[in-house]
Design goal:
Length: 313
C-alpha cells in the first residue's frame, strides 16, 4: 500500500459493445438525448447518460419520431409521449439480428420493443449452448421481448421464458413467429419470477443456463411486488438452487438503478461460489456509428463455466 492508496487492475472488467447490428445504429447522442435508427426509421429519445454535446446539431437530426419525457424527467421516470414529425412510422416493423426478427414499435415508456445493447449476451449465451454439444435447458426470467429466448432456442436449447405481463408474452411469441422459430421448444410462461423459482425448486427442475434482467420495481400477475433492492439476494439464491450440477452460464443485467457493476458482480459471485468457472462484469454500451463514443446502457455480471480469472468461483 502507498500513501496514494492503490489501484487494482482487473482482468474481469469488460465494457461490452453491441456493434454487431445492421438494422440498428446509434447515430448521435448528447444534450441528454440520443438519435437511433431501428430499421428504416430514426428516433430521438431522452438519455440521461448523454451529458456531452452532440456531434451534429440536434436541429439537424430529422427523426421520424420523438419521445418527449413527461413525469419528473428523472432517469427512472419513463413516462412521456411520442410525436411523429414524418408521419411515416408504422404500428410495427421488423428489425433483424443474426437471423432473428423483432417486431419493433413505439411503446409507452419510451421503449421501441427491443433492447439492442443486449445482443452482446444473446451471442455469448448462444456460443456456449452450441459448444456444449449436449441437451441444454435455459431459463429466461423477466424475458419481455423474448430475443434472448429466441437466440438460445436458435442455438439448440430448450427454453423456459417467463414474464409477468401477458402482453409481453404475446410480443415474445410474435417475435418467435417472425423469426421462423415456431418449431423450437420454448415454453412461454406468465408468472411472478420469485414464485416460479420457488415452485421449480419444489419440483426439482433444473437449468444449465439462467438469464435475469430484473427491473427496479415490478409486479407479478397476481400483484406480487418485486423490488430489486429487497429481492435480488433471495432471487439469486434461488437461481443457484435451480442450476444443474454442470451448468454453463448465468447472466444478470440491471437497468434503471444506478448500481455499480461491482455490487452486481460481487452479489452474483457470492451466490455462485464453489461452482468453478469464473465471472466477468462491467457495463453494456452502444457505440456511435460515426464516432468512438460509447453510450452506457446497463450494468451486468455474467458467470461462465469456461471463464477463468481473478474472480473464479
Ligand atoms: C427490463 S424488462 C426486461 C427486458 C428483456 N431483457 C428484453 O431484452 O426484452 C423487465 C421485464 O420484467 C417483467 N416483470 C416485472 N415484474 C416481474 C415479476 N414480478 N415477475 C416476472 N416478470 C416481471 C416486466 O413485465 C418486464 O417485461
Amino acid at each position: 500500500m502507498t500513501a496514494q492508496g492503490s489501484s487494482i487492475p482487473t482482468g474481469n472488467f469488460r465494457l461490452l459493445v453491441a456493434d454487431d447490428w445492421k438494422d440498428y445504429e446509434l447515430l448521435d447522442s448528447g444534450e441528454g438525448r440520443k438519435l437511433e435508427r431501428y430499421g428504416d426509421y430514426r428516433f430521438d429519445r431522452p438519455d440521461a447518460q448523454a451529458l456531452w454535446p452532440s456531434t451534429t446539431p440536434r436541429d439537424s437530426w430529422k427523426p421520424d419520431a420523438i419521445f418527449a419525457a413527461g413525469g419528473d424527467k428523472s432517469e427512472d421516470d419513463e413516462r412521456g409521449a411520442w410525436s411523429f414529425p414524418s408521419g411515416s412510422v408504422p404500428e410495427n416493423w421488423p428489425v433483424a439480428w443474426n437471423g432473428l426478427v423483432a417486431n419493433a414499435r413505439c411503446a409507452s415508456f419510451r421503449h421501441l420493443g427491443l433492447f439492442p445493447e443486449h445482443s452482446v449476451h444473446w451471442s455469448w449465451a448462444a456460443e456456449r449452448i452450441k459448444r456444449a454439444a449436449r441437451p441444454v435447458r435455459v431459463l429466461n426470467l423477466f424475458g419481455y421481448t423474448g430475443m434472448m429466448s429466441l437466440a438460445c432456442a436458435q442455438a439448440g436449447a430448450e427454453v423456459v421464458h417467463l414474464d409477468a405481463s401477458p402482453k409481453s408474452i404475446g410480443f415474445g411469441r410474435d417475435n418467435q413467429a417472425s423469426s421462423d422459430l415456431d418449431d423450437r421448444p420454448i415454453r412461454w410462461i406468465c408468472d411472478d419470477a420469485m414464485k416460479f423459482l420457488q415452485r421449480e425448486i419444489r419440483r426439482g427442475r433444473q437449468y444449465d443456463g439462467v438469464i435475469l434482467d430484473p427491473p427496479k420495481y415490478g409486479r407479478g400477475p397476481k400483484k406480487e411486488v418485486w423490488q430489486l433492492s429487497e429481492g435480488l439476494d433471495e432471487l439469486l439464491g434461488n437461481v443457484r438452487t435451480v442450476l444443474t450440477p454442470d451448468p454453463l452460464f448465468v447472466i444478470l443485467t440491471i437497468y434503471a438503478v444506478r448500481l455499480s457493476y461491482l455490487s452486481v458482480g460481487q452479489t452474483l459471485a457470492s451466490h455462485l461460489s464453489g461452482l468453478g468457472g469464473g465471472l466477468e462484469w462491467g457495463e453494456m454500451t452502444l457505440k456511435e456509428s460515426r464516432s468512438d463514443r460509447l453510450l452506457p446502457t446497463a450494468v451486468y455480471a455474467r458467470w461462465g463455466s469456461d471463464l477463468f480469472g481473478q474472480y473464479s468461483s
